[in-house]
Amino acid sequence: MGQYRNPTPTVDIILERDSNLLMVRRKNDPFKDHLSLPGGFVNEGEPVEDAMKREAMEETSLEVHPIDILGVYSDPTRDPRKHIMTVVFIGIIVGGRIRAGDDAASIEWIKLADFERQQHQIAFDHAQILHDYLHWKASGGTFWSTKRRNE
Amino acid sequence: MGQYRNPTPTVDIILERDSNLLMVRRKNDPFKDHLSLPGGFVNEGEPVEDAMKREAMEETSLEVHPIDILGVYSDPTRDPRKHIMTVVFIGIIVGGRIRAGDDAASIEWIKLADFERQQHQIAFDHAQILHDYLHWKASGGTFWSTKRRNE
């Protein structure tokens, strides 16, 4: 074991309220100034669902609980730095008040309808993830990078 | 990036036919002689869904397609060797004929009802995963190690 190289696991978090999604305006490259879902790396010794809660707290100061897994996205080109696979949770806010963490220029509530109209520049493959989230709201399911989607 | 240690990603595969599940009788430790789901490590550069197809082929000689993600299991103690996080796919068999790979003593179709009666020794946290699969069959959902379950 351990003689092979593996993708690096991360988590991303979808938080919706009143048809708005909580997004991070990125302060740094890659995708500086683009919008991304809150998220980050999973540490050794930490369950992914705990990483999700920790990253939500660090990036947005919100206390969040997982309610579902939207999917696992692992296209090797989805992050320009290295092969990152992300587990995307759908969460609910259970406490805290929004304050941007160190990696965020700002935290913004973005109208779901704006994503459908492609009004924003979205980092990584998060536009695909948000598209899948709209599918999930309509009819459930789980998603992955190469899943065949009926557009 | 890369200065931290992360869990190592794997995939596991649930394949059901006629109320039987395809299980691998493990040839080696840990959990020698126990039953486990087919699965294995995700390679760098490989999407998790491709790792799922590759591992199914290597371990069982079956061609498999993903139809859903059951969950992501990442309790740090679930594998005695190191922190392994697994993405569990539900798949369908689309080709091939069953033949055990190098790591398997045998490939066996096990009655779902036998798992409920705890008739077998199951490796890792795969008994929990199979329990969650029965929930999924009844009412859908996605799962993770510390999810609160109504038993």
Features:
eight-stranded mixed beta sheet, alpha+beta, 151 residues, 21% helix, 8 strands, homodimer, 38% strand, 3 helices
Walkthrough of the structure:
2 copies of one chain form a homodimer. In chain A, 21% of the residues lie in helices and 38% in strands. The first copy, chain A, has 151 residues and is α+β, with helices and mostly antiparallel strands. In chain A, strands 1, 2, 3, 4, 5, 6, 7 and 8 form an 8-stranded mixed sheet that branches.
Largest sheet of chain A: 8 strands, mixed
Number of distinct helices of chain A? 3
What is the β-strand count of chain A? Answer: 8
The average pLDDT value of chain A, as a whole number, equals 94
How helical, in percent, are the residues of chain A? 10-25%
Short overview:
Chain A has 151 residues and is of the alpha+beta class.
Secondary structure: elements and pairs:
The structure is a homodimer of 151-residue chains.
Chain A (H helix, E strand, L loop, with lengths): L7 E10 L2 E7 L8 E2 L2 E3 L6 H13 L1 E12 L10 E13 L7 E8 H5 L9 H14 L3 E2 L7
